[in-house]
Amino acid sequence: MFQRLDPFGNPNVGVYVRATSAHLLVPPGLTKENHAGLERALGLPPREVTVGGSTLAGSLIAGNKNGFVVADFTSNQEVAHLAETGLEVLRLRHARLNAAGNNILCNDHGAIVHEDIGKRQVQDIADTLGVEVAWGTIAGVETVGTAAFATNRGVLVHPLASDDERIFIKECLHAPARVGTVNHGHGLVGAGIAANDRGVVCGSRTTGIELGRIEEALGFLE
User: Fold this and answer.
1) What residues make up the domain containing 196?
2) How far apart are CA 62 and CA 100, in angstroms?
């Protein structure tokens, strides 16, 4: 199912919301209508979370059915709240690259991370998410979690992503990658949507043409 909504009046849904195949993480303060729209589209009950007191859950959390990676300033109480899902929670200990959602692109089958994340931390990410992890860029963008969004069925990527990058993404995440935009032409698609295998949520500025490409990329038209 598809839903348009603007959390806090902002069309960049992916900045605030993190959806996986198993969990839907949202910030406190969303309206009842937002909660209902997210649950209707993504088929999961919203779970309110913060990261270091911030409402930017989409930017600061990466995750899949096996675990979550969060910014290093996540409090012990916030980690414990996420761990109540039954999943492992890893703090991304990197002063410059701790926005886990921006710097990690993942689904239940693989992950791609910012090229400056160190080898030891990459192994910790692999252990937490239960997948193989590779370094990479998308359309030359190092913050791979903003330049693409992945579900288990497909990957929506920045419109300037090269053929080689799309092949690399498919090899890493075991899902086909197709280009597209959100919010009337924005290429940083990871910041603009929240999605899983059940549905997709985009900002209100997303056009019908963009929606068609998003649905195709994420496997809803197959």
Assistant:
1) 2-217
2) 5
Other residues' Cβ atoms within 10 Å of the Cβ of residue 91:
19
Q: Is residue 24 assigned to a domain?
A: yes
Question: What is the DSSP secondary structure assignment for residue 222, as one 8-state letter?
Answer: -
Residue 194 lies in a domain: yes
Domain count, the chain: 1
Given a cut of 70, the residues of the chain with pLDDT beneath it are 95, 222
Pairing of strands 2-4, 177-179: unpaired
User: In sequence order, what E strands does the chain have?
Assistant: 2-4, 18-19, 24-26, 46-48, 61-63, 67-71, 88-92, 104-106, 111-113, 133-135, 148-150, 155-157, 177-179, 193-195, 200-202
Tell me whether residue 197 is in a domain.
yes
2-4 and 133-135 beta bridge pairing: unpaired
Are the C-beta atoms of 197 and 205 separated by less than 8 Å? no
| 29 SS3 class | coil
Q: With 0.85 as the threshold, say if the pTM is over it.
A: yes
CATH number of the domain residue 198 falls in: 3.75.10.10
Q: What pLDDT does residue 210 have?
A: 96
Q: Is 222 among the domain residues?
A: no
Instruction: Give which of 116, 161, 121 is closest to 141, Cα–Cα.
Output: 161
